[in-house]
């Protein structure tokens, strides 16, 4: 049965490749415009989830700020495979964060929060030849922007450099990047 | 540059296929033991995230119940591709839910919750030939169980049948399954 399953899996993979469907070609490395803007990856929601969080904030939340927003952080599969293999993020590593407003306890749930509307898309890219410090950070606004220039050095990079557990990535918050394989 | 990128992507896809690495062979359909227990999918964390939630509960939360746990729901990529194509979940559709305890505002975050420890793994499988009503539900306990028999009809199935928006799946809570492609 295992042989049959493997055969089917290979057949599926070949079939998907020949059709160019995204599942078999996940992550293609970051793509930039001629003037250095990052193109928003089209298929990041099909990448691997690094981790989700709700309301993580770097400023003290006020009494009226509510529960905050969901953050889903995805990593491109090729870079994740390399990270799992040798514990380092390769050049080209791309992490995309999508933000969702919290929906509250819709029927039949009687408590809790789910991901309602997408309200933002951001990205981090490792490219040591292109960016001083190795990484750059990008905001695609509410997600509708197709490209984005790096956010000015300092605002994001400094905090990531000082507080992120692994090479400017907040692996301490992401189970997929924390757990051994 | 686009041609080069595409060529690289194809080379990567072929390379991954020939090595049998999981990114290019995601989802292999549910596998059962001879006596009908579902084998826990080995690679579900590499599937596509349907959606995350925090503290969703079907019983009224008490004052001491805290914020609750995170739920990450993943869908096997082949079934997702079919669902995106024709709006229906094909036979063999497998959804896996992993539960995480909430970690709270670790430095440098000053508020909010991230996914701390994995505390449970559950699954839903559509197989109309095998299960009355089409779907069955499984619990792998804290995630350490390698196989699980279907949960007795009624407890899960009835609520999913009555309240889930699309064919017993709570698509109303999952952005990946709600949004059009």
Tell me the helix content of chain A: 10-25%
**Approximate shape of chain A:** globular
The largest sheet of chain A, given as strand count, sense and whether it forms a barrel, is: 5 strands, antiparallel
Number of helices of chain A: 4
What do the pLDDT scores of chain A average to?
84
What does the model show?
With 181 residues, chain A is an alpha+beta fold. Helices cover 22% and strands 29% of the residues of chain A. Chain A contains four helices and seven strands. Chain A has helices spanning 2-19, 77-86, 157-163, 175-178, and strands spanning 38-39, 48-57, 70-75, 94-104, 111-126, 135-139, 147-148. In chain A, the strands form two sheets. In chain A, strands 2-3-4-5-6 form a five-stranded antiparallel β-sheet. In chain A, a hairpin with a 6-residue loop joins strand 4 (94-104) and strand 5. The longest helix of chain A has 18 residues, at 2-19. The first copy, chain A, is globular and about 50 Å long. Chain A starts with a helix and ends with a helix. Chains A and B meet through helix 1, strand 2, strand 3, helix 2 and strand 5 of A and helix 1, strand 2, strand 3, helix 2 and strand 5 of B. Strand 2 of chain A pairs antiparallel with strand 5 of chain B, so a sheet runs across the interface.
Q: Characteristics of this structure?
A:
homodimer; 181 residues; five-stranded antiparallel β-sheet; disordered N terminus; 4 helices; two-stranded antiparallel sheet; 29% strand; alpha+beta
């Amino acid at each position: 049965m295992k042989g049959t399953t493997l055969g089917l899996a290979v057949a599926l993979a070949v079939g998907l490749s020949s059709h160019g469907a995204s599942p078999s070609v996940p992550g293609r490395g970051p793509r930039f415009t001629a003037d250095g803007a990052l193109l928003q990856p089209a298929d990041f929601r099909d990448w691997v989830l690094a981790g989700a969080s709700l309301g993580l904030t770097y400023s003290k939340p006020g009494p009226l700020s509510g529960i905050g927003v969901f953050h889903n952080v995805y990593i491109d599969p090729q870079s994740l495979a390399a990270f799992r293999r040798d514990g380092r993020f390769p050049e080209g590593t791309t992490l995309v964060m999508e933000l969702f407003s919290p929906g509250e306890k819709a029927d039949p749930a009687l408590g809790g929060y789910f991901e309602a509307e997408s309200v933002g898309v951001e990205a981090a890219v490792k490219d040591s030849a292109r960016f001083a410090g190795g990484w750059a950070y990008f905001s695609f606004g509410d997600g509708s922007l197709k490209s984005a220039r790096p956010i000015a050095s300092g605002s994001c990079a400094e905090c990531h450099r000082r507080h992120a557990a692994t090479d400017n990535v907040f692996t301490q918050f992401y189970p997929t990047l924390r757990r051994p394989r």
